[in-house]
Amino acid sequence: MPPRKRAKGQQAELFSASSPEQIRAILWKAADQLRGSMDAAQYKEFVLGLVFLKYVSDAFAERRREIMAELEEDGVPEHRRGAFLEDQDSYSEENVFWVPEKARWGYISENAASADEGVGKLIDDAMGELMRENRALTGVLPQIFNRDNVDQNRLKGLVDLISDARFAGGEEKTAQDVLGETYEYFLEQFARAEGKRAGEFYTPKSVVELLVEILEPYQGRVYDPCCGSGGMFVQAQKFVEHHGGRDRTHDIAVYGQEANERTWRLAKMNLAIHGMDPEGVGKRWADTFADDKLPDLKADYVLANPPFNLHPWERSTEDRRWRFGVPPANNANFAWLQHIVAKLGDRGKAGVVLANGSMSSQSSGEGEIRKAMVDADLVACMVALPGNLFRTTAIPACLWFLVRNKGAQGADATNDRRGEVLFIDARELGEMVNRTERVFTAQEVERIADTFHAWRGTASARKRKLEYEDVPGFAYSAKLQEIAKHEYVLTPGRYVGAAEVEEDPNAEPVEERIARLTKELFEHFDESKRLEATVREQLGRIG
Fold first, then answer.
1. Which residues, listed in sequence order, are joined to residue 351 by a DSSP beta bridge?
2. Where are the beta strands (DSSP E) in 240-378?
3. What percentage of residues in the chain have a pLDDT greater than 90?
4. Distance CA 252, CA 301 (A)
5. How confident is the model at residue 4 (pLDDT cuts 50, 70, 90)?
């Protein structure tokens, strides 16, 4: 077969790209040309589906090379190697999907130019074969590439670009790692493009990082009741990998639920592309309130960014989850909080993003529910967030951190914080990355997380010899009796006070400054009197 003719322009630009970041930007630009008449949701599935197909194919090819190397090392004759290479268990045991020959990226790339019905038909067929061969992908992958609103020539150009992109990660990262980052990058770009509509599938990266750094999910069951595209799970995995290495990523098991079908598909692909079990988000999408798919789950960690002030919602006044009071029909904030509490194991911890109103609302019984949760000693920490963190909403937000047991827990937490709540006011933190979007810097995430860990006395805090102390304007540890005096309003600004103003060591002492200013005032007064007398004298002469 003759070599493929390479288009100029974007491919030439791609060849000169020196980093994965540049490659992602070029691919995004090329993919954007295919938007055409697609709606945003279809386009999102379209682009992310292509990245996913490339990922599973690359992972399959890499595993195939590993098996071949093992066979050669063991001295298995060539005529017997085929059977081992076609053994699907050899792939599934390493969390690698079985990819049939006509679903492999190499086959699609080689036949894209000669396909009679267009490359879209090849890709749709590949998606179908992948789903037939892998139960975890059943009903997940998009088959939308051969529709009338897809420009087949531009699609072929994008296939060529993805084929030519050097998804090499260097010594620290595999090509699959870089493809996973590409998937995340595209999700972020979709969130930027869709604005408010993106809230159902995307939580800003720095907010997710903060939640994970505070909860420290080293091992155990991680749950998200409204998991969107699975970003919380991906960050939890990154945390484990950063602190324990790639071999420890299986120390966590993820469980999630998502009500939106298309978003659920994105989550399944996102888990798979990061080496996690797609079954973690269930066999089907479902509403968490109406149809809890994990009724018996007891989680070690819960990470959640529920829809703010959701209404209407599937409400049953007889639900056993409403231990602290029946949430109002016009707002699901305290339904989410009580659902999460119901999922916590004996030492479970949760981090939840909610609208600011959840900290102070007294309407429709919400104040009583909040009071009951505080009195039950479930609230460990409240964090007030700055504005502009969420492109998807203008509603101010906060973080709730819930802990089943705030007592001392051996090596995990040495400080007994029963009867106390930590308040952190982070409204002045973050930096604007453009006119409308703010992010926490890595140093700010560390500062907030360190404050919590020092307060709790966690192993990570002891290792770094961190000691907690109140910081006016930023952090304050309040007793429950003090919170009761504030009528159980949990707004950090009520407790942390005003920030201390640092004194300038070279500044003039206050007493001396008062004396100097007083003297100057009288001198100016005397001068003005003399000036007034001179003016009167001159006017008298004129008159």
1. 303, 401
2. 252-256, 299-304, 344-355
3. 58
4. 10
5. very low
